[in-house]
Amino acid sequence: MNFRKLMFLAFLVCLQTLSFAQSKNVQLPANWFNLDLVENGFFGISTEKAYRDLLKDRKPKQNVIVAVIDGGIDINHEDLKNVLWTNKKEIPGNGMDDDGNGYVDDVHGWNFIGSKKGNLQFDNLELVRLLRIYTPKYQSTTNLTPLDSAQKEEFRLYKKMVGDFGKKYEDASNTFSVLIAINKVLDSVSKINNIKVPTLADIDNYKADDETEEQVKNIIRKGSREDGSFEKFYNNIKEGYEQYDAMLKYNLNPKYDLRAELVGDDYSNSNQRNYGNSDVKGPDAMHGTHVSGIIGADRSNTLGVYGVANNVSIMAIRVVPTGDERDKDVANGIRYAVDNGAKVINMSFGKAYKWDKKVVDEAVKYAESKGVLMVHAAGNDNQNNDIEENYPNKYFDSPEAEAYKLAHKKPVKPDFTPPKPMQNGMGMRPTVGRSTIIKPLPLDSAKFSLPHASNWIEVGASAYKDDDNLKADFSNYGKYNVDVFAPGFLINSTVPNNKYQDLDGTSMASPVVAGLAALILSYYPDLKPNQVREIIMKSVSKVLHKVKYKNERDETVRVPFSEICVSGGIVNTYNALKLAETYK
Questions:
Q1: Where in the sequence numbering do the catalytic residues fall?
Q2: For site-directed labelling of 275, which of 193, 287, 523, 545 has its Cα 20 to 30 A away?
């Protein structure tokens, strides 16, 4: 057996032995995130208890518009069509800007990543877009090249980006190679049995061609147990294949860029506002539709799921492609939401690099000045947001922030050495000697007092069981930068074409909090954004036991919940509404 095959088998065995912090082999109520820990045994946010005990004989005082800035929403979904925001000043389909706001036929919202030529579905990571700019300037630069202070800072960033890109590309290539192997077995079994989707019994009966396929069969069996069924595992593998295929073809491909062709804006003009089209669904509305259902799926019908809030209107704003969103589009999405009456904005997206943060900062300040609350997902890399960057965030690029940055420069990671290419795309990660290991700087909490928005809530994801695995294993965390946690594991909600599906992520936790904020505001309309934020944070269900997770040194640790978020708990609807009643 040659070395390449040994490496490939080792990688498969590694995947096979991975364990997850929360089991998916469990039957949860579809509405578990709205249930109560004491009454129902699931660490939900007590929404149903609040409706039953606090809101039963009360009527909301206002309908709250919640803007979902995302990748698109299926506005015809059976559980969403009656809770959509509608621009009553706009006449649908007449091709005219009836209300004079600069957006033609914006009946249910606006799409900032499209035009008359179509919609942008894929885009690069911000990392790749930045490398496209910096590589011609610095690819031949060495540490001995004379540079001024600004160039030195750019060169430092460039070296960090080269390392990050190399690691991301290697990881994506390795993972995609494994997904190809699994897909090959699944497709072979389907072809042999002349069926579209095989069963686990079909997999067991399949005679493997070699040791690699035998290992793949073991992975399929183990994955089916962990995901709760073979069907779920099969769908996850197919979706994973599509995601990593897109990552290599588009997200990490410096040669791919259809922005100018499909959007056609002047990308260099950060202040340009009027571009895009009215197709708020777009080519892939899975994520945004799921988020919308969590916030406000119709509670008055007998269909599907219950959203957290019962008197909301969902405004659809499309700015997120498959890839990283662009700062200009995010800023315009925020401004559109504010100008059209949104009181809460949900942002279930994020990235590791920034390009034009100033324009986003200005939009956040605009929302703050107009009394709009912003709810943002903390991210799914199990990273410490107190240490690692995650954009957008509540901190402004202010003079104070720039001064702090100059005084507290982060150490540069070692240059990435690409692995030697192999025919099957697999590679070994280069070893890092002791002399190249970078010791992290001690955490300085002073930076968390730098100028920032007061209308911002950062949300991590929790699981269903009240044990030491309560923190969802993928969720980012931060004692100073993640405000609260909310359910974000096996969340059942709306997906396109009148379907429902379980999804995981802080992308699911954020709309739980956005829905809660909207519910509070619908009964207490005079509350300011900072008050709603305060109420949500003060009323959490405190987690009094330790939780475990892997820290930035890849060590499994057990810590108090207050060490991974500001509030030290999981948001709770019942507690929040009771506390809101005391605010005058």
A1: 70, 287, 507
A2: 287
